[in-house]
Amino acid sequence: MRLESKVALITGAASGIGEATAELFAAEGASVVVSDINEDAARDVVQRIQDAGGEATLIAGSVADRAAVERIVGGTVERYGRIDILVNSAGVTRRHAPENADFDEQWEFVMGVNMKGTMLMCRFASDEMKKTGGGAIVNLASVYGLVGRPASLGDGFDPYTQSKGGVVQLTREMGVTMAKDGIRTNCLCPGFVHTNLTTGLTGDPETLAKLEALHPMGRLGESHEIAKAALFLASDDASFITGAVLSVDGGYAAQ
Ligand SMILES: NC(=O)c1ccc[n+]([C@@H]2O[C@H](COP(=O)([O-])OP(=O)(O)OC[C@H]3O[C@@H](n4cnc5c(N)ncnc54)[C@H](O)[C@@H]3O)[C@@H](O)[C@H]2O)c1
User: Fold this and answer.
1) Across all residues in the chain, what is the average pLDDT?
2) Are the C-beta atoms of 182 and 250 separated by less than 8 Å?
3) Domain for residue 249, yes or no?
4) Residue 155 resides in a domain
5) Which of 102, 122, 168, 195 is the most exposed place for a label (fewest CB within 10 A)?
């Protein structure tokens, strides 16, 4: 077991990549805090982990809300005594913005969850990690934090790509500044992955074929393939890796 006796706090853990990561980390021996804004779905994940013999606790809340972030981090320490691993998987696109939101409101919504939410979680969790000699942070960025979208998919002003570029840079900055505190901060840049985030696109066979063609491997990824990369970066196997940006994208960003 690669995460025996570790405490892992995972946001966005009710669905997709976060959910797969929570289940994998629990199977690898970690005590997992399943955190998400969707409390019901998060409760189901906790139940499944417990049914499989793992250790998990639900702490719901929005990463975009500073008071909630302090409560999630504080609750994790209260429950398990410390935080060894943070995985920031909570994320949204413009489609998740409140109905009738105008461009500015959509922009602030996406940046608020993807960029500010990741920063807030990193900030408060790293304060706790410093108290216990360090830890490992894995941020979910995206291939679109590295390359521009094709014109067929974007209009040049999508806050999603801007927010993910910000997550890449937050990761590098923390990697540099917090190495002295024993905190390793790395990020994953997935290509398109089959999750609830992408069903709006992948449900249409023609769009799915176009997305598949963007990846040299000719297919989209699966959540468990991203979770395994998160496991590597979170585990001691990555003990000399910090500030790294790892593409897990079937070759997309290599083109
Ligand atoms: N699926 C992809 O193709 C893909 C590709 C690259 C990067 N990513 C990134 O990976 C991460 C996970 O994506 P996914 O595909 O698993 O998406 P998903 O929609 O399946 O899961 C995201 C989870 O985040 C939660 N969430 C949304 N807003 C939140 C908030 N304010 N506070 C707490 N939780 C919140 C949702 O309830 C959901 O459970 C995201 O950051 C996403 O941008 C996904």
Assistant:
1) 98
2) no
3) no
4) yes
5) 102
